[in-house]
Amino acid sequence: MSASAVHSLWTTAAEPIGKIDAPHIEYGQLAPVLIIVGAAVLGILLEAFVPRRARYHAQLFLTVVALVASFAAVVGLATSGYATTEAGIVAMGAIAVDGPTLFLQGTILLIGLVSVFTFAERRLDPEAHGNRVDSFAAQGAAVPGSEGEQAAVKAGFTTTEVFPLVLFAIAGMLVFPAANDLLTLFIALEVFSLPLYLLCALARRKRLMSQEAAVKYFLLGAFSSAFLLFGVALLYGYAGTVNYAGIAEVVDGTIQDIDPVLAQTMGNDVLLLIGAAMILMGLLFKVGAVPFHMWTPDVYQGAPTPVTGFMAAATKVAAFGALLRLLYVVLPGLRWDWRPVMWGVAIITMLLGAIVAITQTDIKRLLAYSSIAHAGFILAGVIATSPDGISSVLFYLGAYSFVTIGAFAVVTLVRDAGGEATHLSKWAGLGRRSPMVAAVFAVFLLAFAGIPLTSGFAGKFAVFKAAAEGGAGALVIIGVISSAIAAFFYIRVIVLMFFSEPKPEGPTVAVASPLTMTAIAVGVAVTVVLGVAPQYFLDLAGQASVFAR
Amino acid sequence: MENLIALLVAAPLLGAAVLLCGGRRLDRVGHVIGTALAFASFGIAVGLFVDMLGRSTEDRSLHQHLFSWIPVGGFQADIAFQLDQLSMTFVLLITGVGSLIHVYSMGYMEHDERRRRFFAYLNLFLAAMLILVIADNYLLLYVGWEGVGLASYLLIGFWQHKPSAATAAKKAFLVNRVGDIGLSIAIMLMFTTFGTFAFGGVLEATGETGEGKLTAIGLMLLLAACGKSAQVPLQSWLGDAMEGPTPVSALIHAATMVTAGVYLIVRSGTIFNAAPDAQLAVVIVGAVTLLFGAIVGCAKDDIKKALAGSTMSQIGYMIMAAGLGPIGYAFAIMHLVTHGFFKAGLFLGAGSVMHGMNDEVDMRKYGGLRKYMPVTFVTFGLGYLAIIGFPGLSGFWSKDKIIEAAFAYDDGIRGWIFGGVALLGAGITAFYMTRVMIMTFFGEKRWQPDAAGNEPHPHESPKSMTIPMIVLAFGSVFAGGLFSLNEAFVKWLEPVTEFHHPHPVISVPAITASTVVVLLLGAGLAYLQYGRRPVPVTPPKGSLLTRAARRDLLQDDFNHVVLVRGGEHLTRSLVYVDHSLVDGVVNGTAAGFGGLSGRLRRLQNGFARSYAVSMFGGTAILIAATLLMRAV
């Protein structure tokens, strides 16, 4: 950038203020996001002004109402044609409201709603000094094991801040797949990441582990954000704009007038390739693809289980949404460059996730590696670069996320004196002691493994079909092999639950409130319905598979 | 009228469903319901027949499309029926003889406590057999084919408390399975070759298809026919199938089901016409079986097994005729119908004898029964005269034509061989049938009290049993003559099966004369051996051939040594390979992945710094790979 260009940048700020036009904002089409953000802000105010006793119910009510209202807004937009004919770019080019956006926003909101139910569960842990408690620390700021913590527990504190936090996270996730320029993308990423870092640190039991997980997640997340931001800068240097459509035009070489200020760097493919790779890396980190996956097992294990469920489901949906939009809107002209690289990432992600999961002994870590393998399967659909690829990924995300939330919700039920009993050896013979819970968990495991008549099969079939039709036959073969490896450890848990002798001091299955039960029931229902009659939802995803440019 | 076709099947199917689902409440009336529905089906058949006679020859083929069964892209399977002259013939035979045997069973099974179930199975059989012969495509035919197999299995093993009956049922089922594989492969081949398995489509398309494929399809169809019609080499089940109640033997294992193979070959005539090699194989199978069955029939002392050998042999005639092509199709079917009458009559007669003799089946313990059972004696005797081809009776008209057609196979040595075999078979038929006749109804009484001291009191059977026998005897006597009047039967079938006049290597009167001579010779020999001398109650040791024939010409021994032992060795070696090789590979793979997993998980060491390094390295590789892709 030349000195004169820098000068001109300085001087624009000096021009009269009256020349700045008020931005045009389409409030209606942004309503889902605005409702959530508004409710989150309101939640902070509740935290400040509502008496401690009433906070839990007030927050829960507000959160559920906000999520339902926002979901209604999404459905309203979709039925008004904003997913298809009316799809377009809003908020001065910052946000795209189209089929994938609305499909993913709807999915995220439902995930959020079900997750909030598990967040609000207060019957699993024994009462502390006459107060019902949830999975979260009495006081997040108290040092673990300190007198301050004891006092907070004795006083019956609960961290009701988790509700506004989760709303902020959801707001970021709603924007993430809708972001239509790189800066919005980055801001959305941070908006949903920061609350998640906090939530990870808030486990009531095993607090040190929880805090360690949060710190790791934060450090590595910040590290990956830096890469992403650097990638944004490089792409701006390449294209002279952060707008998706604008970058795509430069990539395709269809742009008419080149900004003289950026003429030297514009169209430099090295900038483009490095920048694109770095942004991809930032997104692959969020979906937990190898080799950016290492935070996943540690964080999944350390975070409070309801948070793990929410994170595992919703983050994946949001991040894959953003990845799809980036690859299909910004970089389709570059697909001959990114496809082979993504091939490699998908293959090692599937294989490594499946193989390392074999030797896991902790159920939460096992599910973490399983989520890595699933990220690989979804990547196979992403690589297809076809409308079928998009719709199959959308379907897979919907199917997978409800199985995940359900599975983690079951994990919260199996407890012993030290809280959740996550070591696999303690799950031995669970099927004898609690046949219903074990059977439900078995359904989820079968869905993870992709056994027919579960949503997992329909999803896997859809992405593999799309990938095979997109010319990625080898990828599909490796995917199927990985599925076979993965089936081993899923089935092993089933065998453990049903065909092993229960241990004498094994864990008990806690009786949960209707909240968690609802979450599990929704998980089972979605798993079975999407497995037995997937066509309606496949069609829905198919209709929602066109990106607005 | 075509809308009535489905009712043919619906009536007995309804009967089976009602009787099976109705439970014990229907125990007292079950047999009436079953018989009534069989007659209903027969009534519909007669109505359709009269209607068909009223039409001109071109309009006689009726068609009813019920619904699309399996519509998947280019794979169209329909539930659709076709009633042409060939099917009509079968429908009349099946429902007619079937109804008579229902009536007979009312008497025969009177004291059986599972009578309702028996009639349910009989109805089920009728429904399946009707589907088989009126299906308009091979896939639906296959449904009927399997259906009759099931009914046959259930009825052979009807007295399942007897281990021999249970074993026989299983044996029939397994042997039939081999044939069924042939049919399923044939259907698959048809679909890949012609893209359809509707009769119309397949038979039209044969003209444009290579002979090799048609030969393959033909041989597979022949395999199917061998299984269902008890032809060599899949004949071993029929003798044991006589463990079933005698009405079953008469209906399923003599008159109808076992002739399904003949129907299949005649129905697929166009394919065989275009595949001479397959046709030759059919003729050879028929010729071998007709001798095989006849020889076995000569040695059996069990009256039903002797008749079973005879059935095998007579179906051998039909298969042989069907293999002769257009000169034989009509006669194959004609013999099939006349055989349906006289063989069903003979079996019912045998059942009547057993009924009066405390279920004794050994002919050496009969003798002189003509005085005790006059009706049975007369009807059985007429059936006997018909089957040996006594001039003027049914068997004479149909069998003589087959022998003529066999002599007309070609002008050379083959015509002589096949004609000679057919002629020889006629002689042996006369021998073994005369033997059965003499041992049962003539000579001294040879029965003795059984172990419990009950001496049989031979008596005539009730009316419900004798009336069907009398009706069938009429058929045995007159059917052949009626069919041959003015070549009525041949002309009736000609639009479906095509007909060429045979031109035998020797003149027709000479053939007829030698047939009569041969049968007199056979009957005379039997009279010399069994009529002139007393029949020993304990069988003599007999020659090597006799002993082999008593053991069904060692077919079971052959199957045991070659198939059962061979199969055992094969499974054992497969199990060994499975344990050592397959399991080795599988377990090795699992162990390999387990080890790999153990090593890879060490990368996850818990240090954020290591994770960051791996992310950094990963990004570097990502960038390098992206740039590299552009460079290459």
What can you see in these coordinates?
The complex is a heterodimer of chains A (549) and B (632). Chain A has 21 helices and five strands. Chain A is an all-alpha fold. Chain A has one domain (21-543). In chain A, the strands form two sheets. A three-stranded antiparallel β-sheet of chain A has the order 4-3-5. Chain A has a two-stranded antiparallel sheet with strand order 1-2. Mean pLDDT of chain A is 90; it is low at 1-6. With 632 residues, chain B is mainly alpha-helical. Chain B is built from 24 helices and two strands. Chain B has a two-stranded antiparallel sheet with strand order 1-2. Chain B is globular, with a radius of gyration of 29 Å. The N and C termini of chain B lie far apart (75 Å). The model of chain B has no long low-confidence stretch (mean pLDDT 90). Chain A binds chain B through residues 215-216, 219-220, 223-224, 227, 269-270, 273-274, 276-278, 280-281, 285, 290-292, 294-295, 297-298, 336-338, 340-341, 344-345, 352, 355-360, 485, 488, and chain B through 590, 593-594, 596-598, 600-601, 603-604, 606, 608, 610-612, 614-615, 617-619, 621-623, 625-627, 629-630. Chain B: One of its GO terms (molecular function) is NADH dehydrogenase (ubiquinone) activity. Chain B: It holds the Pfam family Proton_antipo_M. Chain B: Its main location: membrane.
